[in-house]
């Protein structure tokens, strides 16, 4: 199998359109991330599966952003099937 570049679409998204992926294996220090967001702002993106709204990368940043009261966050959408989504999720974690 050769490497490929996935199509990626960036958008500022209402935070309630997203949810954590139920198979995310990691638990993080969202309190520390929240303090960083409070002092420097939210920068970068989370990566989410477009068809489900499940976050594949950036789960802890998402949780911290919710706690900090953000209403929108930048998302990089990827159009992938569930199997590929799990591979991205596990590969990043």
In words, what does this structure look like?
The protein has 93 residues and is α/β, with parallel strands linked by helices. The protein has one domain (8-92): Conserved hypothetical protein from pyrococcus furiosus pfu- 392566-001, ParB domain. 33% of the residues lie in helices and 26% in strands. It is built from 3 helices and 5 strands; from the N terminus they run E-E-H-E-E-H-E-H. The chain has helices at residues 30-40, 59-67, 82-92; strands at 8-14, 19-20, 46-49, 54-57, 72-78. It has a 5-stranded mixed beta sheet with strand order 1-5-3-4-2, sandwiched between helices. Strand 3 and strand 4 form a beta hairpin. The two termini are 22 Å apart. The relative contact order is 0.29.
Q: How far do the termini sit from each other? A: 22 Å
Helix fraction by DSSP (H/I, runs of at least 4):
25-40%
Give the assembly state of these chains. Answer: single chain
What proportion strand?
25-35%
Largest sheet: spatial strand order: 1-5-3-4-2
User: What does the main sheet amount to?
Assistant: 5 strands, mixed
What do we call the CATH homologous superfamily? Answer: Conserved hypothetical protein from pyrococcus furiosus pfu- 392566-001, ParB domain
Number of helices: 3
Provide the CATH topology.
Conserved hypothetical protein from pyrococcus furiosus pfu- 392566-001, ParB domain
Q: What string gives the helices and strands in order? A: EEHEEHEH
Give the overall form: globular
Q: How many strand units?
A: 5
The tally of domains stands at 1
């Amino acid at each position: 199998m050769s490497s490929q570049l996935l199509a990626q679409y960036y958008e500022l998204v209402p935070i309630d359109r997203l949810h954590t992926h139920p198979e995310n294996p990691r638990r993080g220090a969202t309190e520390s991330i929240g303090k960083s967001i409070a002092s420097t702002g939210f920068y970068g993106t989370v990566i989410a599966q477009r068809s489900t709204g499940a976050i594949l990368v950036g789960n802890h940043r998402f949780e911290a952003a919710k706690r900090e009261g953000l209403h929108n966050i930048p998302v990089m959408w990827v159009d992938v099937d569930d199997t590929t989504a799990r591979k991205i999720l596990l590969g990043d974690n």
